[in-house]
Amino acid sequence: PTQYGDFTAFGYLDKLEALATRIKSKACGTKVQCAPGDEKCSSYLATVKAKQEDLEKIGPFILRERAFKAYDAKEYEKAATYFGEIIRRYPDSKEIALFLYNAAFSYEKINKFTSAKNMYELIFTKYKDLAAKTPIKDDKGKIVDPSILDNVAEFLARVALKALDYETALKYYGVLATDPSFATMEGRVAWYYQYARLLKFHGRYDEAVTYFREKYAKEVQSKLPQWKKLAQSSRDPEDKKKYQDFVKEAEQFLPRADLELCKIRERQGKWTEALQLYQGYITYVERTLEGKLSAIQKSPTYYKDKPDDRENLREMMALLGLVLQK
């Protein structure tokens, strides 16, 4: 084959070597020109072996090139296969942390969340020091992040949740929420929320209340005015969208955090506090719905082309019904 890097190339040379050895050891018919003891046969066998050695030497570079080419082209199924093969063949590579990272990201893109989780966890547990020194580069070779380790814990927690592995998700959202090295990262507010939800799921109610109320809600409320300002004034389109998303998520999840607190206090049998929290939530939802319903009355087509807003409205009305029942 002329295309080195296909896995068949290795097998092809193996077959050639086997054929040459067979020719050398016995007569293979009148059509075979290379007979036992023929110097040409020995020379041919030596050539095949040399080619095999050459291919073994350049194999890692070929696979690496193909893996990154597929990755940059967003052909994630191919990329996952190539990176997986590199990891299997060359586990001692100096770039193993990067290969694992790209393989994990590719697996996540094709919804193989357990495989992605295993790759990310291997980086965090076995190659942490190497990952800390490995930068992330764009397709032009420009460094966009000085260390892949900055993202690994977050991605690991996220895919563990998608893989329904709640123990691992709790562990790594806990790392994100409590480890001082992540304290200045902007994503920490969202991590507080997810960690609180997982604490609640595992029955650790008092800790969940702390993270919903003392960590998540307080931090969002303190940062929300700044986010709103940056969402309007930022000149960088990417930054502008980022802060707009922060504001949207905060306005969506702050009341949900209150609702989670309602449920926790209800489960703990703290009825007075649960009642107060539910009453506060009802007031919030009614006020929000009043504004939304008013917008619909003024413009009946307001939600026609806004499926996300329309779905959010339906969800809020359904939640209000449930809360009023309670």
Provide a descriptive summary of the structure in words.
With 326 residues, the protein is mainly α. Helices cover 76% and strands 2% of the residues. It has a two-stranded antiparallel sheet. It is elongated and about 95 Å long.
- Helix/strand-derived category reads mainly alpha
- Continuous helix count: 13
Please give the order of strands in the largest beta sheet. 1-2
What order do the SSEs take from the amino end to the carboxyl end, as H and E?
Answer: HHHHHHEEHHHHHHH
Q: What is the distance, rounded to the nearest whole angstrom, between the alpha carbons of the first and last residues?
A: 71 Å
Radius of gyration: 29 Å
Low-pLDDT residue spans: 1-7
Rough shape? elongated
- Helicity, in percent? over 70%
Tell me about the largest β-sheet.
Answer: 2 strands, antiparallel
Strand composition percent: under 5%
Query: How many β-strand stretches?
Result: 2
Task: Quote the average pLDDT.
Answer: 79
What's the structural blueprint in terms of helices and strands?
Blueprint: H1 7-25, H2 39-72, H3 76-89, H4 96-109, H5 113-126, H6 128-132, E1 136-137, E2 143-145, H7 149-162, H8 166-178, H9 188-201, H10 205-233, H11 237-267, H12 271-298, H13 307-325
Antiparallel strand pairs: 1-2
Helix pairs in contact: 1-2, 2-3, 3-4, 4-5, 5-7, 7-8, 8-9, 9-10, 10-11, 11-12, 12-13
